[in-house]
Design a protein that fits this description.
Blueprint lengths: L2 H14 L3 E3 L22 H4 L9 E9 L16 E10 L4 H13 L14 E6 L3 H9 L7 E4 L1 H4 E3 L4 E12 L17 E15 L8 E16 H8 L12 H11 L7 H22 L8 H19 L7 H5 L3 H9 L58 H4 L14
Parallel strand pairs: 1-2, 4-5
Antiparallel strand pairs: 2-3, 3-9, 4-7, 6-7, 7-8, 8-9
Helix pairs in contact: 3-4, 7-8, 8-9
Length: about 425
């Protein structure tokens, strides 16, 4: 099943169950505490916190996200990537644990010829928060083997954004890939064999002073009990397509094929070189998606993150023996495949940026025209870059206040340069 079909089935399922389907928000985070949209729930935080009234109490989306915290793990594991798409269904004071658990289990286990994903129930494992006996009882009511329900603490099964905002205990769904991938014993024993595909967060708390996953302050209960779930589209795709990792799926592997032609090497012959191929596949995709939302390479803020992705791509290709320019040939094959993810955004300005746009980008002013945005559900800055940050800041950096982001007149003047 193609990645696009997996996403379509998810959204169709939840639309059938009364959810409003909304397009992806921009990668330029509406949350003033992050550079990029790092999770599918970030655009919905005002609704989860009760600060704004949602257009409907049930919503679902396929949100594009960027995280660079684990950038050094890219290519080395089966599941780490800097760009990913997060399928999510949300409830704002409507349904809670029972319905969220039922929806997830039904969609995963319904046969493919009936509109589901067709996972074998015997290969599904669930984790629950320490004292969440209610969730464990609900999983059993769905027919899950009690031995496949495990208990984890705050480090694994209490979700927050990493900063002030909504949070709560969660229940994660894993798929057993089989004994050839590791030891038995469930997710507690081996998270390489047991791959997490879906996280159901029961968000009914407000948290702040978040220092770590286990060191945080719970301010109190939210006005409504909310549901925030996230299913990794790339992880679902590689499991359902019978691949070994997210880099070999139908939307990512074309970059590896292009890199093979440039380098004269064959993917699969050498594990060390395979890591380089995967880095190129992930970073080219991430860079193109970030540029499609108006960011251009620079030495600060979001532009620095983009520049780092481009430099790591070139470095990996040099290690593969390629010294010629690489972005144009690597970008060209998958652009049509990725255009679906860009069309799913609320940014109608451009499709995938042309590869020549990353040539000789020595300043943000050179390639940073102010895009025209249409009115949409999500607030966007007119000019998402430059941001006044010192260099070498990652996705967890603090950005200007939301009010400043919404006031283009307050951005420093940019002197446009010719090509």
């Amino acid at each position: 099943m193609r990645t696009s079909e997996i996403a379509k089935r998810y959204l169709d399922y939840f639309e059938k169950h009364g959810h409003l389907i909304v397009p992806s928000a921009s990668l330029i985070s509406p949350n003033p505490t992050t550079l990029f949209t790092i999770a599918g729930m970030v655009p919905f935080i005002p609704y989860l916190m009760g600060e704004q009234t949602p257009p409907k109490s049930r919503m679902a989306s396929n949100q594009k996200c960027v995280r660079t915290l684990d950038i050094d793990e890219v290519g080395k594991t089966t599941r780490h990537g800097t760009f990913f798409q997060m399928l999510g269904n949300f409830s704002f004071g409507d349904y809670f644990k029972e319905e969220a658990i039922h929806y997830a289990y039904e969609l995963l286990t319904t046969p493919q010829d009936k509109g589901g994903y067709g996972f074998d129930p015997e290969k599904l494992w669930m984790t629950t928060f320490t004292d969440d006996e209610e969730a464990r009882s609900m999983w059993k009511n769905e027919g899950v083997d009690p031995e496949h329900i495990q208990i984890m603490g705050m480090e694994d099964n209490f979700w927050t954004t990493g900063g002030p905002g909504p949070g709560g205990p969660c229940s994660e769904i894993y798929v057993d890939r089989g004994p050839e991938y590791g030891v038995e014993g469930g997710p507690i024993a081996d998270e390489n064999r047991y791959i997490e595909i879906w996280d159901l967060v029961f968000e009914n708390y407000e948290v702040d002073n978040v220092k770590s996953k286990t060191d945080l302050h719970i301010v109190g209960e939210l006005e409504n009990k909310n549901i925030d779930t996230g299913a990794g589209l790339e992880r679902l795709a590689y499991l359902m397509q019978g691949k070994q990792n997210i880099y070999e799926t139908d939307e990512v592997f074309p970059v590896i094929e292009a890199a093979q032609k440039l380098s004269g090497r064959t993917y699969g012959d050498d594990e060390a070189m395979d890591v380089r191929f995967r880095i190129v596949a992930d970073h080219v995709r991430s860079a193109l998606m970030i540029m499609s939302d108006g960011v251009r390479p620079s030495n600060n803020g979001r532009g620095y993150v983009l520049r780092r992705l481009l430099r790591r791509t070139v470095k990996a290709m040099r290690e593969l023996g390629v010294t010629d320019p690489v972005m144009r040939p690597c970008c060209r094959p998958p652009r049509q495949l990725w255009s679906r993810a860009i069309r799913n955004s609320t940014t109608p300005s451009t499709m995938c940026p042309k590869p020549h746009m990353v040539k000789r980008t020595r300043s943000v002013a050179r390639w940073n025209p102010a895009p025209r945005f249409s009115t949409s559900l999500w607030p966007r800055p007119r000019n998402p870059d430059p941001t006044p940050f010192p260099a070498k800041m990652r996705s967890s950096c603090t950005t200007p206040t939301a009010s400043r982001l919404r006031s283009p007149s307050k951005w420093p003047p940019i002197r446009r340069q010719g090509r």
